[in-house]
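ok so i was messing around last nite and threw this chain in just to see what happens. nothing serious, just curious
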Amino acid sequence: MACLHTLLDLVLPATGKRRSPSPVTPPAQPEPYVSPWSRPWTSPGKADAVRELQEERRRAAAYASLGIDYPYTYDGAPFAADSFPTTPGLAA
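result:
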């Protein structure tokens, strides 16, 4: 095998520039994991949520007594509040 290597070196000499080894960079350190439970709870309390729900139900009942659909919307909803009919008799 060494003889074949020597023969190939004589017949096919290496031409061109040899590559220098690429500089080794250390891998980037991943960011440490932060548990969502380590942050304080910032949503409204239970009493606030109950009060808001009751107010919304009262508004919906008032609209329903007038024959108007109440626009249940939220951030990111597929339909905006203006897509609900606000005039009695337009609801299909």
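not much to say yet. The chain has a mean pLDDT of 79.
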